[in-house]
Design goal:
The structure is a homotetramer.
Chain A lengths: L7 H10 L20 H8 L7 E3 L18 E6 L24 E3 L1 E6 L8 E3 L4 E3 L12 E2 L3 E2 L11 E9 H5 L9 E2 L1 H11 L8 E5 L2 H8 L4 H4 L3 E2 L4 H7 L3 E4 L16 H10 L2 E4 L4 H10 L3 E6 L9 E3 L3 E3 L1
Parallel strand pairs in A: 9-11, 10-12, 11-13, 13-14
Antiparallel strand pairs in A: 1-17, 2-4, 5-14, 5-16, 7-8, 9-15, 15-17
Helix pairs in contact in A: 1-8
Protein name (chains A, B, C, D): Kynurenine formamidase
Organism (chains A, B, C, D): Kribbella kalugense
InterPro entries (chains A, B, C, D): KFase/CYL (IPR007325), KFase_sf (IPR037175)
Amino acid sequence: MTGRSPTEAEVLGYVESLSNWGRWGPEDQLGTLNLITPAVRRKAASLVRHGATVSLARELAPVAEPGDAFAPPQRYMLFTGEGLADEHRVRQHPAGRESDSARVHGASEYIGMVFHGFNVTHVDALSHVFWDRRMYNGKPPELVNSLFGASSHAVTAAGDGIVTRGVLLDVAAARGVEWLEPGTGVTPVDLELAESRQGVQVREGDAVLLRTGHGLSRARLGPQDPNVHGQPGWHPAALPWLHERGAALIGCDAGVDVLPCDYPALSMPVHVIGIVTMGLWLVDNLDLEAAASTAERMRRWEFLFTLAPLRLTGGTGSPANPLAVF
Amino acid sequence: MTGRSPTEAEVLGYVESLSNWGRWGPEDQLGTLNLITPAVRRKAASLVRHGATVSLARELAPVAEPGDAFAPPQRYMLFTGEGLADEHRVRQHPAGRESDSARVHGASEYIGMVFHGFNVTHVDALSHVFWDRRMYNGKPPELVNSLFGASSHAVTAAGDGIVTRGVLLDVAAARGVEWLEPGTGVTPVDLELAESRQGVQVREGDAVLLRTGHGLSRARLGPQDPNVHGQPGWHPAALPWLHERGAALIGCDAGVDVLPCDYPALSMPVHVIGIVTMGLWLVDNLDLEAAASTAERMRRWEFLFTLAPLRLTGGTGSPANPLAVF
Amino acid sequence: MTGRSPTEAEVLGYVESLSNWGRWGPEDQLGTLNLITPAVRRKAASLVRHGATVSLARELAPVAEPGDAFAPPQRYMLFTGEGLADEHRVRQHPAGRESDSARVHGASEYIGMVFHGFNVTHVDALSHVFWDRRMYNGKPPELVNSLFGASSHAVTAAGDGIVTRGVLLDVAAARGVEWLEPGTGVTPVDLELAESRQGVQVREGDAVLLRTGHGLSRARLGPQDPNVHGQPGWHPAALPWLHERGAALIGCDAGVDVLPCDYPALSMPVHVIGIVTMGLWLVDNLDLEAAASTAERMRRWEFLFTLAPLRLTGGTGSPANPLAVF
Amino acid sequence: MTGRSPTEAEVLGYVESLSNWGRWGPEDQLGTLNLITPAVRRKAASLVRHGATVSLARELAPVAEPGDAFAPPQRYMLFTGEGLADEHRVRQHPAGRESDSARVHGASEYIGMVFHGFNVTHVDALSHVFWDRRMYNGKPPELVNSLFGASSHAVTAAGDGIVTRGVLLDVAAARGVEWLEPGTGVTPVDLELAESRQGVQVREGDAVLLRTGHGLSRARLGPQDPNVHGQPGWHPAALPWLHERGAALIGCDAGVDVLPCDYPALSMPVHVIGIVTMGLWLVDNLDLEAAASTAERMRRWEFLFTLAPLRLTGGTGSPANPLAVF
């Protein structure tokens, strides 16, 4: 895109032009993950040349942050290592029962969270978004209900994990800035600039990870509410490019969609058209700082990418710790 | 072990003889994960010959099961695809705010769980168990407290993921049974029998995954409370063997420790000596049925193993979906 | 009712004949609580002759029980009195911050529950049940949605508390049995038998509390799943009687509706017709054993009744500890 | 107090001079609630002259507020009235199972909260605070542990409810201000000024409710974090006065203790000396605006006070909706 942004009508046109409905059969729940073939995985594994692993996830701390739409993640200790010498101490077995030995104790906790939102690193299943009262592949949204969660298009569709080539496109570096300002949407011009700088080409089956430098700005300025202050992200104009290249998954160090968004009818167009139209799997809220440093040092922006969603029955996504193995 | 089980005194002796305290420095929090070098990872990646991925985790459903020491996993939908045509319907944006478009809706949920216990597939961090009022490497247990969780030895120590060679030892198959009965402890004799049948040798840095057939018995008979009915598992007599071979991580399709346990002073000796003495990382409650079938079909029981714990600040472990990539 | 039970068609007829829709205006959310006038409350207060208070609630323990439709109540301690002498102990202030004094510590917890169901003593707001896609007073059910909870007919309608005369009708004692067997539905014959034995008459504005002896059978036999084993309770044939007498609230030591129920179209007819048609407030799962003993001892089955629901914004009910003051 | 505040040494002296340890026996868990005799309750009931009930609690909404030390209250709908016409709608029974009737649906929710803190109206049990490693009556703090919660001094000690005379002391009105500024501690001079203006005298067994006008300032200025901005409240200098008068319970429309506090060794001295030394029951975060208006209108600041804590097994307190019945 050298010049103008697509009009809202043009973006709405993607609902037809980028559609993958029916492409992999009427019952398909995998969407673009179908593009990750065994051959793609074999090639991806061959990228492990150094043997270094780098997490692409933020830490998941039980603290409130700006932009939380819901309660912050929670952690409540069930038992701890405190007071083991106390006279009235209950001997707590690691498995949660009373220990039969005075010498053995354990620690355990309850964790809880709403992983969707702007803070937790997570993957969206294809049941996360509805457009015109349809899910990906035309399924009715009532299949996602209070009692069963997502009885179709759950995250368990990807239960065997997402293992493919990861390509980190460092658009902040390509543009020569520390980070893209909130409201900056990344378009094919940026992506190809980064490809060119890095000597890498996105191809079919890739996990395409966009570095906007948001992790650095969060570290420097503190987290800010994207609904108030905006965030950088994928511009919907990148969707045809991703469709053509055959991306299997996209991620971003902010919340995927650029905010504020110029297309009110679509609200969060990359989520809407990506998930519903294309069946594209999205990963929100990555931390790409460590991976970008490693890539820069090794002069190599491709690696083995793994993401193993929790096998949450009926889940509309999952918190995740995606890895890059260089 | 051809003959007798070790006495309790002998097992207690492992606390000295198998100790890794200080081996990787006084501040080490990685324990046996230190054995996974870049070279080990490179070799592991080279095992991806077919490109098939198989989950090693059970599904994580919000239902009560026998053996739950605490509340079952929880899932509460925050908004769903129900009633999108209702007159009073709130347009719910995927990011958790009200949508500015009548055509866009989303679904989201709260999830919560106590992952330790007998049902959720999870990894134990080295802060999960205390022996004689010490954690691995001699640290005081009060470092694990209610306010901060594990302020040392948290699961975040493995935040960059565990990527290594996985070896599935199918002891049920080696013994020619569908599954090992509860109370059956697996010893080096069994392990070497399985190695021999499978033509594979456990070596330094491996993730060693014990198949007892428990997944099959759970499917056939339904889940049962291991505190009442027992479970098969690793016998503490296997610990010196694991130490000698240099296992980096062990897992089991039941809860790792054989139950009931003959060593009351130790309560769950593989947890106690494994975690506290050896700094060994344990994965409880795997589902190895699919991986065993794949391995049998391919006649290959080694693969690329990945486990990416959630980066839970202060966590004493994490729910997980470990993968085998063949 | 001396003879036959009403037919399903007759019970369905109550939807018309017992309707309070519009009786207190088109926007009314109080239903039968309108019958509790200041004069009724003054009279109720005059019943305090001894000054004894008795709880009418079960204990609320964080344990699983048969009949739980959802996760059991939860309690997770945030900090405790354990290990106050530990070297690494964090000084925990009662208000949840670090204490500035080494001599001050506190204890606190998270509590969570699904109060509706068969175990927790709770009051149902008029937003709890829908019949033919309508709430009490004809309001549309979509007013109860995931984002806001009950945006009409919430429990906060009764936020200033329910203070009135309580009448305990001990039907088990009237029938001369320890408890009514599951499946036994209490009809006007029973109610008038109890009135007669006790020398009391239900009148307008009363809280009518039915003792079936279920508390005793729970204590004796342990709790049982009412969906499997049934429960005693109010028979729908009692509804016209309650309507005529002007009961403001009814309660029961089991879950209000007799189970199994002979009226499949209505599923739980006392809940459906009581709440939706009559605007009657229900209290499920009382413990009436202590109150019945006190009443028997004092030969007085009327008292000051108080129930103060938590002021849960959007709540469809509330856990409660109703009191009898004799 | 006309003049100087007590020194820290003087306040520390209250630990001896105001002690109720042993006063009601070595096993007492009721503390000052012992002062509420049946005669006190009878007299309190006789104060119901009009028959009006007024809640003394704030609304309990699932939203974050400044001063939350922990996650805000949570409400997750389990099923709702949305989409009852949807083709795939699950018929949800009020009791949490699938309904056997297409005409019956229900709504239900999960609620969760940390009630201690600065926002939820709640009562503190005598297990909530420790001083010099002792609870009220000298019990060891380890009796409050992670596994059992408060195994002594739990809120269930008051399970039969607190029913007594309530006296609202409107110190803001007595001082002729809209509200007391944060940091303003209320002393006997203020209390007696209010008594005198209102023509009422605190006497043995009373629930003494201090109105600082904090509810009005919250409404006007929005909630503020008391740890940052302070709050008005009871000055520790009022403790001897409360002891002498025989208050059974005290409450406040802010968080009881004035903040900031001038006595660092005691941190929150009214909590510490009130709860631990005196066995005094505290109610934090009341909303006294409606009650004050009613009292002003009726020219009567005494009423029947009821508080029925949830019977939380092991609870260190309870959320509550205390009532004033005029």
